[in-house]
TrEMBL record, chain A:
It comes from Streptantibioticus parmotrematis. Residues 1-41 are annotated as: Disordered. The keyword Transmembrane applies. The chain crosses the membrane at residues 68-89, 109-134, 165-191, 211-234, 241-261. It comes from the Bacteria. Residues 7-41 have a biased composition (Low complexity). Keywords: Membrane, Transmembrane, Transmembrane helix. This is ABC transporter permease. It holds the Pfam family ABC2_membrane_4. The keyword ATP-binding does not apply.
TrEMBL record, chain B:
Keywords: Membrane, Transmembrane, Transmembrane helix. It comes from Streptantibioticus parmotrematis. The chain crosses the membrane at residues 37-58. The keyword Transmembrane applies. This is DUF2092 domain-containing protein. Residues 117-126, 134-148 have a biased composition (Low complexity). The keyword Zinc-finger does not apply.
Amino acid sequence: MSRAEADVATGTDAGAGAPAAGAGPAAETPGTPEGSGTPTASRTARALWSLGLFRGELRIVFRRWRTAALLGVLAAIPVLVGIAVKFQTRGDRQGAGDGPAFIADVTNNGLFLVFTSLAVTLPFFLPMAVGVVAGDSVAGEANAGTLRYLLVAPAGRTRLLLTKYATVLVFCGVATLVVALAALATGAALFPFGDVTLISGQTVSLGDGLLRALAIAGVVAVSLVGIAALGLFVSTLTDSAIAAMATTVGVLLTVQILGAVPQLHAVQPYLFPHYWMSFADLLRAPAIGSAIARNAGLQALYAAVFVSAAWARLTTRDVTA
Amino acid sequence: MARNESPRPEGDFGGYADFGDVDGEARARRRRALTRYAVPVAVAAVAATTIGLGTALASTGSGPSLPHLTARQLLDKMAASDTSTLSGSVRVSTDLGLPSGLSGGLLGGVAGGASGSAAGSSDPFGGSSGSGASGSSPSASSGSSSAADPAAKLTELLSGTHTLQVAADGPDRQRLSIVDDTSQYTVIHDGTQMWAYDSGANSVYHATEPAHPAGTAHADKPPAGVPTTPQAAVDQLLKAAGPTTSMTVDGTARVAGRSAYELLVRPKQADSTIDSVRVAVDSATGTPLAFTLTPKGGGKAAVDIAYTRVNFGKPSASDFTFTVPKGAKVTQGKQDQHGEHPGGPGGAAGSGAVGSGAAKLPGGASGPELTGTGWTTIAELKAPSGAGLKSGQGGQSGQGSQGGSAQGPAGVEGLLGTLGHHVSGRFGSGTVISTRLVNVLVTDKGAVYAGAVTQEALVEAANAAAG
């Protein structure tokens, strides 16, 4: 358990002795040696400390073999899809229109493997990976008994939570990029590259297509913001990392099933995966932005609700582990 | 550090109970917890109220205040409308209550037969089991080999909710897209060129029309497909209007951010299955912006077409150009096809689903005979060969009008038996297939009567024909 924070966490034992000390407002009053001095200096110090905390978190998350395994699985999916398309499609387009989105276009243009892979991974693989990392974020610390050491540090619980969330968000972006880049590499290796045919029928240059692919990766990453916040909240509820991950993934599966039941169409626009496939709108000309904007708004709403719920939980919780 | 207590139960809300010795502190903590939990609850509540208020205002809020118009003045305004350039998004919801086995196979045949499209060679009944399945999930694309054929594709609009994008620049240039989650079906009409592109199958359909004077082209076009814009639907409606119709201006509404008059149209004839038709007419341009058709049976609208975004500016010329994408499979359509205009706002698409009731039948080679007037027009099709419903689909295959009837009438009757119920009268006996809007009577002698009328009216018409 060689935690970077454990070295930094050398303040007073605020976690158990005075439960209020770690709370948001309490963090405003510098009560530790390094917090003393002029307000400006303390703010700078706190910002630096936050940055250090954030970097430490990133290092911990991305050095874990578990994270590496998750990213490895995500990177393997485009390779598998690419190889399957390469060796199974023999010219005939029988059954085109079935299967994952854009898969019919992959043989013409390897860039479409990026879109296919994102369409394949977005419903389950990507959010599951995010759910694992988010569910582990706070509960993992509690599980390992390191949470209280983090909380005695002068940063305070609010900042710790935001740092954790920022780390999960970085993971959302990295996971999406891993899928996209693996797909790009596989597509370039197995299929021809060239001008891109949009789904509305126009043909644009490869550069334009790559820009659109990048924008689509961004939209996909933003789509994961909601499940990340949900996982963070679940993670603050329990001391068992496994339980938090399982609950987050379970919620994801449940919501995806609810989204597939036609009788529930009235509530479906409020489920966080509802607009996930809106990224395909970036492949139309003239572009349609409304669904992408609605997706972003819905994700922001989920993030606001669940991060504030996680904050309410963590800052008032009695941390014993 | 030792734990405060041995195994802490999972889900213990913060373990406040552990602090029994410091009662006041525990209470203060609980109070603070409640205050903090109020934050996410408040965020969720504010969002819910905003969304709820938004939809409530949109649906029940009173429309904008506009100068009063009579129905006649509003109709004149619509007739005088010179909107020729337009672009926007249209939401089409249809719930015709079709028997699921029919929605794909038969209607595909109907539209195909009516429009005389020659591209489809798929067997209508061989395909009907598959399309029955796709009837419940409208976004599933049909497995037919001519996936990009507009006539077949537009029938998808006959069930479920779809988003369309339309653009028009005069009568010669239109563009229509059916927008699906990850695919798009686009029809572009530019002068004599007609292109259709199906991104899901990466296939292209191309047809060339002989040049004809603009304006007259659409006048005598046989009804085909579904109305894809409010304008097309209203054209059908006005055709059906007459002494049998009452029209009133019923308030105002906001459609796609524009203020509009609501025209309420009700058939006076009791036999009609249509309760009312509501048309929202843009107050500035006289362009219909929304069209809602409610059947007598109640429930939600059978057809609901409305712009969600509309712009009366001239669309960019590049919207109407098409180059065949690399790797796409191109199907050439036969020349001289009338039914393949995209449903541009100029009224290019006729109505097979609403309005006159005359468009419901399999078109066939001979064409239906119309009886009755106005809303209760009944189309009658005498099928000499006993092929019954087949005659409509016969027209679909370009090879010959009876090309599809190889399976024989036995299969047809078996299918009819599962879809409809038996009736009898002076004409003999037959089967009635009912939907929310249209009833179809197929007599055992092979004649077909159809219309947006009650079953009794159909039987009466059959009796009258029998003499």
